[in-house]
Amino acid sequence: MNSLKRRIDRILSEGEGKQLAWLAGIALALFLVLALLGGLWALGWTEVLNLYLDPGGFPLEARKGSQGALNIFSIVISFGGVLVLNALTVSAFSNVFDNISEKYRRGERRYKLRDHVLILGGGQHLVDMLLALRDGSDFDGKDIVVMTSADVETLRGEVETALGDPRFSSRIIWYRGERDNREQLESACAAAASIIYVIGEDGERVHDSVSVAALDYLRDICAGEGPALPCYVTLDMHTSLDVLSYLPKDTSSRLQVELLNTNDYLAEQILVGSPFLPVPGAGETLHIVIAGMTSIARSIATVAAQICHFPADPALPRKTVISFVGDNIREEADIFIANHRNLFELSHYSFIVPGTPVEDHAPDKAFGDFLDIEWRFIDSHTSSPFVRDMLLDLAGDPSKKLAVLFCYDSDDANISASLHLPVEVYEAGIPVAVYQRSRDEILRKAAICGQFNSVTVFGEALEGTDALFLNRSLRGKRVNYLYALQYNDPKPASEDEAWNGLSHAHKLSSIASAASIPMKLRAFGLDPTRESVASLSPEALESLSEVEHRRWMVSALLMGYRAMPLPGRSDRSRFKELKNEKFIHLDIAPYEELDRHEAGKDTTIVTNIPYILS
């Protein structure tokens, strides 16, 4: 009996088609039994059906013969019709609608979709992405599917409140599911999507591993011939990016994957997407002081190292100085240096502990000294007398351009530290950027005060200017297309064709090249027009090409390439072997060592800046 009861409870709770099918079967079975029994009282099946469907047709006048039995049987038929076709039917349909409604709210309903936008995850970038989808003409009318492992009802409410646009919110379809589950990805019609974003959830302990597993399933689901399907995957750790960047390209799937580090993207918004950093002139240096040694601080440093290159100055061979400031910084600094050992092998860097001698490290003499960036790791905090005096000296020296960024993990700590710098720093108009994860009301209020005009916000709290990563990729595509047109054989037919054949490492290299263009324009006083670039003198064009080469060297070193010691750089007979098998790149060398062919690659990029940015 208990087993039967549980079975009935389960059937009633399942709802929808299965529940209705069971109800129809019960109704039909009961009618057949009653029709067979009706023959005992000479009742035809049509009379039984009439009583079964319409209990109001119960006979008021008894027939001759077995009147009592007939009346009792007629009552049984009528009561069966009332019970099965009225009470149970109403209950069943009510359960069906309740179950549909409940499943929809929980994100368990699934639909057949095509040409939709699929977002896997409900992380903090989601609202910015949805706003960009709403405002982007390329996505007009497209369904948007958000599949999240979070509570759908709660997330939907938060997102719809943030969007404040009920009409647009009606285009969003919410699914509850795990992105590293193949069945869930197939139920979201991943293979039929027009674009896929794998952003994950906030606070995941294994974010990158889950996203990589999802990527493997997506590649398999999208295997075979067909139009290219763009797929953007955000990763938290640079190590993950390094590992995936050099994997062989998967040619069996039409999924076209682009990887990006979440914190690098946020760093690009402030350093590339705005004129935050000052530009040093002749005889000047740029000093970037970063408070904290967090993941976002490391991204700020590596992005800055790739874009902050300026016209050569023999008196100042290192025109950019990047300083980390933090208590007990040595361990984190050692990890950072070890993670980028190829870069620091060629770099000037120092450890500074107030009250003790400075520990300096120079480039390995076997390679030479040709990078134009210096690094400092200062074991202190921004409120210490040592750091405050350092900031005062930098802010008061006209030969030094200063920018300060607060990158602690705590929003409150960043706000407090950024608003308590020496007053002379604010009076000098030194740009100060503050990392904020959630809300930025305090700093926006502070900006109203004249003293804090130069304080700005970056991070998740600020709406992204390229939340869908499309401009970032488009400009990288154009950099690569320029290379491909000049050096590939056969020539690619389009930007997309050239891009789709690239490894992740080469995609990231092209994107980094494009990201450096705004700073180049400012450093050389150029407009992004063909006329402006064409007006460059041969000397200025050569200087701009050298800047691009020095930028490329830092990007290549950060991606894991190594330099060749000086005696072996002139032998280019093993160029491809060294590059592809040992990750040694012979072009990581001073600009003057390059032959004209290699230097021409840098010139190709800088002379086509208007095309890249247009």
The total of helices stands at 27
CATH architecture of the largest domain: 3-Layer(aba) Sandwich
| Global mean pLDDT | 85
- Structural class by sheet pairing and helices: alpha/beta
| Biggest pleated sheet | 8 strands, mixed
Instruction: Give the strand line-up of the largest sheet.
Output: 10-9-11-8-7-12-13-14
> How many DSSP-defined strands?
14
- Percentage of residues assigned to helices: 40-55%
Tertiary shape = elongated
Oligomer: single chain
User: How far apart, in Å, are the first and last alpha carbons?
Assistant: 75 Å
Please report the first level of CATH classification, the CATH class of the largest domain. Answer: Alpha Beta
Radius of gyration: 34 Å
Q: Layout of SSEs?
A:
Blueprint: H1 2-14, H2 16-38, H3 45-53, H4 67-106, E1 117-120, H5 125-135, E2 144-148, H6 152-163, H7 166-169, E3 172-176, H8 182-187, E4 195-198, H9 207-221, E5 229-235, H10 238-245, E6 255-261, H11 262-271, E7 285-291, H12 295-307, E8 320-326, H13 330-339, H14 341-344, E9 348-352, E10 359-361, E11 373-379, H15 385-396, E12 400-406, H16 411-418, H17 423-427, E13 432-435, H18 441-448, E14 455-458, H19 470-487, H20 495-500, H21 504-515, H22 517-523, H23 530-534, H24 538-558, H25 575-582, H26 596-607, H27 609-613
Parallel strand pairs: 1-2, 1-4, 2-3, 4-5, 5-6, 7-8, 7-12, 8-11, 9-11, 12-13, 13-14
Antiparallel strand pairs: 9-10
